[in-house]
Fold this protein.
Amino acid sequence: MPTALITGASKGIGKAIAEKLAAKKTDLLLIARTENLLKELAENLRSKYAVQVDYFVVDLSKPDAVEKIMQWCANKTSEINILVNNAGYGLSDAFEKYSIQEQIDMMQVNMRVPVQLIHALLPSLHKQDQSYIVNIASNAAYQSVPGLSLYAASKAFVLSFSRGLRYELRNSAVSVTAICPGATDTDFPKRAMVSAKAAKAAAKVNMSADAVATIAVEAMFAKKAEVIAGFINKLSAFLVWLLPKKAAEKIAADIYGL
Ligand SMILES: NC(=O)c1ccc[n+]([C@@H]2O[C@H](COP(=O)([O-])OP(=O)(O)OC[C@H]3O[C@@H](n4cnc5c(N)ncnc54)[C@H](OP(=O)(O)O)[C@@H]3O)[C@@H](O)[C@H]2O)c1
């Protein structure tokens, strides 16, 4: 039975990806902090799709989080053949508004955890006939975003790392896919504490978590390198590519109220 480990599976895009994979008869290992949401999701997916679903509650911003996840996985009989690095969040407003610990915690969740999980799981992913890594980046990976500067930089890291790793693994059993969602209707804006103006702008083009998850799972099985979710987001990334960087940064700064 295929088995997927999904970080940030308690809600939003990660939860929707978990449901899509369960529907394809994939056993699931779900990771997040909110135990009641993971428990509820696990029970729901087990009864709806007759798959095995286990969950592990951990704060990924803690330096030993991946070590704990790997210890937990060591007791499992099934071999993981899908890794979805989805957990992530932003901190909006001026960089200086947040403490350095808050910024480092975000970098830990968005960048260090995917790198550590990939490094730890690659030996077992190589042993499968076919295995997949999906990294959830963002449209923010395509430009600097004043007001979300470090978040956008962390997503540029995820995208660049995904593409490089994919090439390195091109002759192996492991396919690597980066997904770049734009504004998606999840708890992301609340967690990032985005301004009312930015939330209103996002609401006009919001995609559903379900739509993004469909794109992510299809792209993963089609072994795509990089997929921007939805036409509006593809257009936006193209316009960003056409515009002088300073102009794209000014538009973003206006949205984020800086
Ligand atoms: N929504 C958007 O507009 C948007 C756009 C582009 C990219 N993305 C990316 O899409 C991914 C999913 O975000 P989302 O929109 O679905 O947001 P969300 O609804 O806030 O979900 C985030 C998930 O990450 C988990 N998470 C966050 N911090 C964690 C921590 N310290 N330890 C463990 N788990 C943690 C959350 O679980 P707990 O809170 O239970 O821990 C939750 O399951 C992120 O990488 C995000 O950057 C989102």
User: Anything to note?
Assistant: The mean pLDDT is 96.
